[in-house]
Amino acid sequence: MAQTEKKGGLLRKSSASKKPLKEKVVLMYDEIFTTEDPSKCNPRFWEELFLMKVNLEYLEGKLEALDGEELMKIKDNINCLFQHCIQALGEEHPIRVVNALQTLCALIRGVHQKNKSTSGFDIINMLVGFDKAELCMKNLMESLDSLLCAEGSESLKSLCLKLLLCLVTVTDNISQNTILEYVMINSIFEAILQILSSPLSRREHGYDAVVLLALLVNYRKYESVNPYIVKLSIVDDEATLNGMGLVIAQALSEYNRQYKDKEEEHQTGFFSALTNMVGSMFIADADEKISVQTNEAILLALYEAVHLNRNFITVLAQSHPEMGLMTTPTSPIPTTPVTPLGTTPPSSDVISSAELPLDADVQTSNLLITFLKYSSIVMQDTKDEHRLHSGKLCLIILTCIAEDQYANAFLHDDNMNFRVNLHRMPMRHRKKAADKNLPCRPLVCAVLDLMVEFIVTHMMKEFPMDLYVRCIQIVHKLLCYQKKCRVRLHYTWRELWSALINLLKFLMSNETALLAKHNIFTLALMVVNLFNMFITYGDTFLPTPSSYDELYYEIIRMHQNFDNLYSMVLRLSTNAGQWKEPASKVTHALVNIRAIINHFNPKIESYAAVNHISQLSEDQVLEVVRSNYDTLTLKLQDGLDQYERYSEQHKEAAFFKELVRSISINVRKNLAFNTLSQELLLKEFSTIS
Predict the structure, then answer these.
(1) Which parts of the chain register pLDDT below 50?
(2) Is 6 helix (H, G, I), strand (E, B) or coil?
(3) Residues facing residue 417 across a β-bridge
(4) Alpha carbon of 121 to those of 107, 108, 124, 181: distances in Å?
(5) How far apart are CA 408 and CA 447, in angstroms?
(6) Where is each Armadillo-like helical domain found (predicted)?
(7) Alpha-carbon distance 107 to 62, whole Å?
(8) Is 0.90 topped by the overall pTM?
């Protein structure tokens, strides 16, 4: 017998047969693509169609090949196919349900490709018809909701989520996707929560559920009342919130693990040998090769949870074993190619704290620690656009956390100490810190470390002004909490002071180049006011009196930088230029710092002269400082412990619109390439009862 081969919906014999034979499902598609009703000649047409294995490629290709006019001629048949797909979702036989779901995916994508330039209304009309749209979409959403909530097949649930993701991302700008109006009216919110609260469902579908929720929350969020925003903001079920947190933690942890693996591979490879041989001149170039795609989709989900739901804040501190130490699942999980925004689900399992008991000998972690590690990686390189967006979103999330009273309570809790190994950018002038020497400290120390690390490592030509402003604001908000609650944090404040002074030095050294692009005085004022905060209120939150003395020592030691800054802002504030007003604000803010310098410097010089010492030690300078506080006069500055609260709608709407657009595009690409294969599904439903 001649061997039969299959290609593109055609069956052909390997012998010299003149005409290829089409498989039956392709012949049936061809009937749909005529102006005649296919069920006229065959009353069982629709029933038979959903028993045939879907040929996605052929169906989508057929739709895309037609022009607008040709498509309109077969609109009735397309509508009929769409409606019969919805009817088939209620069938008992799972193969029919699978084929209906697959066909719906192909229809939605195919019609979208054809209608790219037209409005969503045309797509709705083409798929289902305006007159039947409301009822059909209601039935579709109810069927999907039932399948997601049922005890049945996990594969069916997976396919339902893929279809929903397909529906949501059918347009680049999801707010222009009018089909989503029906998803708003016929909510599947509770079904998503049910997936997240069940350990089994969460393991299989948690990632898709979380990404779907993040996208739905962003549909016309500034223009109308979005029910998903309202519902997410009031969720208080602990199991659901913890489930969502675990899915996010696992995805971020997977990223951290991939980065660590690449870093280790990189360090033991050729570049490492070369670097050791010729010195550290290649460190920066070598580091650029350590690149793992960022995951904005899961980061957006974390942001929405933190921003909208105050109850989710408790999840940030929920302890679980270090994700990297978890055992991987025994059941195979299909892997998918990583797309440019990391919209691929992690390949490891998500384990709830109930499923894996804590071991006293195992380093515990939590979502916040995993997030801080993730942030320390993506914030290293802001030259790449995706990493820049990721870095910005990380800082926005930290801003929301730094403003929250409960979050601050556990950040500063002395009884919640963790060893947080942040990633540090390789730099020529410093050694890599040994992981084993990391102390256990309150989590706020890791947040401050991250801010200091960013300040130190991003003073460059392409200066990320926006990220610096956010970074300084986070530090300020944490200090405001410490001042208000009189929290005396044992932290190496000198590292922060040194980083801030070096930042001011950088701004002055690059004044001309930076002023061409940025108002550097806004940032300079924020930095100066951080010092004013320490000067005015430091005695209420610095750990010891000697810490306050060290603050003065640093200001005096680095007085030249403050003198130079004063000279610069004085020059610009006395000229009638565009920088007059912002520069004069910095001039006024420097009054107490200058008072400290002008008060102590003569006394230090006098002490040196009397004692015939050419250069004073730190202890000697501190002795002069301690003995001359009484005669120092400082001005009381108002508003140092006040700040403007974060507001998304007024300041960040454009950023989120663009971010969600890029996530939508990449989720769609990811679905298109790899997640709609039927092989596993058909194996699962190989027999029809």
Answers:
(1) 1-7, 12-14, 119-120, 277-289, 324-343, 347-362, 673-675, 688-689
(2) strand
(3) 442
(4) 15, 13, 5, 11
(5) 11
(6) 435-671
(7) 10
(8) no
